Amino acid sequence: MDLHDLTRSLHQQNDSKIVMMVADGLGGLPLAAGGKTELETANTPHLDALARRGVQGMSIPVLPGISPGSGPGHLGLFGYDPLQYTIGRGALEATGIGFELQAHDVAIRCNFCTLDGDGNIADRRAGRIPTEQSSLLVERLREIRIPNVEVFVEPVKEHRFVVVLRGEGLGGNVHDTDPQATGVPPLNPVAADESSGRTAHVATEFLAQARKILADEPQANFHTMRGFAARPHLPTYEEVYGLRAAAIAVYPMYKGLARLVGMDVIGQAQTLAEQMDLLEQHWAEYDFFFLHYKYTDSTGEDGDFDAKVARTEDFDAALPRVAALEPSVLIVTGDHSTPAFLRNHSWHAVPTLLVSDCCRTDGRTAFSESESRQGGLGQFEAKHLMTLALANAGRLGKFGA
Amino acid sequence: MDLHDLTRSLHQQNDSKIVMMVADGLGGLPLAAGGKTELETANTPHLDALARRGVQGMSIPVLPGISPGSGPGHLGLFGYDPLQYTIGRGALEATGIGFELQAHDVAIRCNFCTLDGDGNIADRRAGRIPTEQSSLLVERLREIRIPNVEVFVEPVKEHRFVVVLRGEGLGGNVHDTDPQATGVPPLNPVAADESSGRTAHVATEFLAQARKILADEPQANFHTMRGFAARPHLPTYEEVYGLRAAAIAVYPMYKGLARLVGMDVIGQAQTLAEQMDLLEQHWAEYDFFFLHYKYTDSTGEDGDFDAKVARTEDFDAALPRVAALEPSVLIVTGDHSTPAFLRNHSWHAVPTLLVSDCCRTDGRTAFSESESRQGGLGQFEAKHLMTLALANAGRLGKFGA
């Protein structure tokens, strides 16, 4: 019996509201042993006030020691076991640029590359050609036509672009054509299972046409294909939790991840203040709101401790507008830690705060790594957070008699 | 490898004694944020003395956010994964009235109902006829005879009663005959799998005879059948732990649950003092004692905070008699929380105390939600408690070389 078998059979309706605020990469590290983390350094009076009314714990994104990407990090927070539900690289790349994958799509990450006179790969990234240049090449690749298949070609950045093939009977399991080496020719697309034979055939045709179109380019005279992936089939929030859910995010990746679990993506907010506007405007329409804040992660990845502190304070300053809506359950968490010290996503457990009328407070007076370590929720895998949210909202019936 | 594969291969014998005291619904909540829980309010000098000698933790009955019924709550404490072993509704109802289910039994929850002149259900509960009246009808249904099947009909309360069919080849998967609506006729019993075809046939015959017997009743002129369930097949304490186990409980439900895992149910105690008498009298005969105390749950369900405090103090007062027996391992826990604030079973973790000579004490000086949050056992799923008990009793060998 998996978590969603439980929630499917136990969820019930009421008029409660749940808000999940995800400060991306929230958890951190001190710059020197014994020092304070970014969150501990930041002045966060509103988070601390919520801590006194709530219960804290440490959320383990996937498993101890596992540093997740944005995909598994968010799937865990959404209550989808990130080891059970995986999002193929191509599908995640397409999601990240805001491409709305449909049921019969296969998404492929592509790299422009440079072939030498013998057809061997001389540069796997075509000299990292600038985005403006590769975008023009992407335009030309859109001329490619394949019978009975709709083809989308979308630029990403520098030498990277995405191809999406849409049509019946296209499986998502095809081996990469990038040989991960120079001095050898690119590989042909080879199906890794029976249902992907047609996909390999279509990809071969695409590459043949692309080779002609790109033939005279000085650098990007061909491309490789990697990470073939069908749209992942995730049950929806409506089905597994009985929740009408909305996502309020600035960046395409997080909108895309939310769409994959059936959330409505609302608005075009560019700032946290605009996200708050949307939250207020749509308050009556949804049971659950996922609100994504990016800058605690991006500053961490930049290794900029002080900027992460400042961005954490910006996040804190937005909380009174959320609290004023009096959500039945308010959660503040992150999809993983991104310590500026490591300049990268990390495995460290993420301080997580849940506030409700019946949350069993834990005597904590601030919100931080060291406080949440002593919190009432203990350490728990992120995938359990949604069940806790539903329980605190009175939306889960009793299991067994 | 499940938990019992481990304990089966590792358990060993010695003359230790384990006592598990289950205060039903033990965990609680403050009535107002920042206040004390029932257990924190209660004056519990003996629990606090044990806390100084023991180690505490927070037991999660099933999974975070899941509020269990008595069945899964106790199966977890007994070390049986409550998501792996489920007890069908009919079997639990029969267990709850003290009916001893046997291997070839199928138990069915029945409701007297009222049919109108067209044979449609006018009232799914026959006007909730009083228990005295329905008991007389149950007597009459005992006249029903079905070839090669032993039939038991047992009253429960008001319009509810239980039918148990005993015979070879009776599967437990038959759909409910209650259409969950009025103005339509009851459904016929339909088997949900091949092995339950005979059960559906026998149930159909039972209903035909019942319809004749009840035909002239003004209100309860028929009945529905729901929650068909075979006796759950649980491995026994003797087999998985090597323990001769005894249950000392007042209420039939908990005696029944203990029987399902092979415990001997001893005595007919009506009070905690009588339960203590039984514990002392049978001390030499068993390795493991499960002692169930109901009133921390029933007062919680009543929403009576003060009564729960008082009943917790009564429980505490009984502890010196247990401690005087010097059990090798003494555990105090609950099958779930029942905060008076919620008037219901809840998902909150349950304060749990384990005392043994080698338990690694944790410096706690009282027993409560807030103390156990800081305890040495951390947060753990209830299903791991029995393994901890066996280990502390020196009854588990080393895993691997």
Structural account:
- The structure is a homodimer of 401-residue chains.
- Helix content of chain A is 32%, strand content 19%.
- Chain A has 401 residues and is an alpha/beta fold.
- In chain A, the strands form 2 sheets. Chain A has an 8-stranded mixed β-sheet, sandwiched between helices. In chain A, strands 3, 4, 5, 6 and 7 form a 5-stranded antiparallel β-sheet that branches.
- The first copy, chain A, is globular, with a radius of gyration of 23 Å.
- The mean pLDDT of chain A is 96.
- The interface between A and B is large, with 34 and 41 residues.
The gist of it:
Chain A contains 14 helices and 13 strands. By secondary structure, chain A is α/β, with parallel strands linked by helices.
User: Helicity of chain A, in percent?
Assistant: 25-40%
Helix-strand makeup class of chain A:
alpha/beta
Order of helices and strands of chain A: HEHHEHHEEHEEHEHEHEHEHHEEHEH
Number of helical segments with 4 or more residues of chain A:
14
Mean pLDDT of chain A: 96
Q: Give the chain pair forming the largest contact, with residue counts.
A: A-B, 34 and 41 residues
Major sheet characteristics of chain A:
8 strands, mixed
Strand content of chain A: 15-25%
Cα shape of chain A? globular
By DSSP, the count of extended strands of chain A is: 13
Key words describing this protein structure:
homodimer; 401 residues; five-stranded antiparallel sheet; 14 helices; 32% helix; 19% strand; globular
